[in-house]
Amino acid sequence: MKYQDIIQQINNKVYQPVYFLMGEESYYTDKISDYISENVLTQEEKEFNQITLYGKDTDVATVISEAKQFPFGSAYRVVIIKEAQEIKKIEDLEIYLDNPLPSTILVICYKYKKIDKRKSFGKNLSKKCILFDSKKLYENQIPSWIKTEVKEQGFSIDDKSANILTQYLGNDLSKINNELSKLVLHLKKGEQITPKIIEDNIGISKDFNVFELQNALGIKDVLKSNQIIKYFSENPKNHPFVLTLSSLFTFFQKVMIYQNLKDKNSKNAASALGVNPYFVSQFQTASRNYPMKKLFKIFTYLKEYDLKSKGINNTSTADKELLKELTFKILH
């Protein structure tokens, strides 16, 4: 079952005896368990009918014992198990799944991993409870996710800002959501998150960031490229060399993909590159400036400087000097 469907059921007061929430992405697992915690019972009912246990401090027997208790002064009892991946022999819960108490809503948060659905316990979970598998989003899915989240909160965000946040925060949805929460505090409903707002409130420079470095390299703007890497060198904690390398690899990989496309219309190119159509022109320009032969050299440089950053064939050159050398080789 999908996240939206689970929330809709809860809003309609259609509750299931057991929710097993698992997967590598903890954001939605937390959202569902928090939503159940906040919306099923009234504040008065929670005092006697809602309990939260933690996997490292409990066991299957205790969970079953709590789940089998009848509610007091309420139609339901809510039992939430956080960090359930820490429970030993969690498959022993199967005996409860066979005959759950209808008045109990048992929420099991099995985070950062998943149960093997090919095995007996996994198969029974699929049949006997609401099984939610929260998968990590790929990085190219994050900008559109950010735009959707911001819209749901009553604000908007431009494409460039969504990509800046993605470059710096990766695909950790909880981390992104925390930063978005900081940003919207400074906005009125309906207003837009811009690079300037991001710079003022999170500290990611609107002019000197990885996204702007990619753009400067793409158009072969030597001055701008050197200004950005100078800023990076002066702020190494916010711009670690290894992350810059990773970002440049992804950028030039997409430039190569664009060059190899037979159909280069905006919609098809955006789909192939995993970017918003707004950014296709960036790769179109870079494709003209970097022929295939040069791209192969760039990938060689990236590998070489990745090794040097790890101390291989390099005993004394600092990261900031490595970045200068790499940028020079890419541009010339």
Question: Would you give an account of this structure?
Answer:
The structure is a single chain. The chain has 332 residues and is α/β, with parallel strands linked by helices. The chain has three domains: 3-133, P-loop containing nucleotide triphosphate hydrolases (Rossmann fold); 139-201, Orthogonal Bundle (Helicase, Ruva Protein, domain 3), CATH 1.10.8.60; 210-331, Up-down Bundle (Zinc Finger, Delta Prime, domain 3). It is built from 17 helices and seven strands. A five-stranded parallel beta sheet has the order 2-3-4-1-5, with helices on both faces. A two-stranded parallel sheet has the order 6-7. β3 (77-82), α5 and β4 form a beta-alpha-beta unit.
Query: What is the CA-based Rg, rounded?
Result: 25 Å
Task: Supply the CATH superfamily name of the largest domain.
Answer: P-loop containing nucleotide triphosphate hydrolases
Taken from the alpha-carbon principal axes, the silhouette is: elongated
Helical segment count: 17
What count of domains describes the coordinates?
3
Distance between the termini: 53 Å
Q: Which ranges are low-confidence, i.e. pLDDT below 50, for 5 or more consecutive residues?
A: none
- The residue-averaged pLDDT reads 92
Query: Within the CATH hierarchy, at the fold level, what is the topology of the largest domain?
Result: Rossmann fold
CATH architecture of the largest domain: 3-Layer(aba) Sandwich
* Helix content bin: 55-70%
Q: List SSEs in N-to-C order.
A: HEHHEHEHEHEHEHHEHHHHHHHH
Structural class: alpha/beta
Number of distinct beta strands? 7
Largest sheet, in brief, is: 5 strands, parallel
Please write the CATH class name of the largest domain: Alpha Beta
Strand order of the largest sheet: 2-3-4-1-5
Strand content: 5-15%
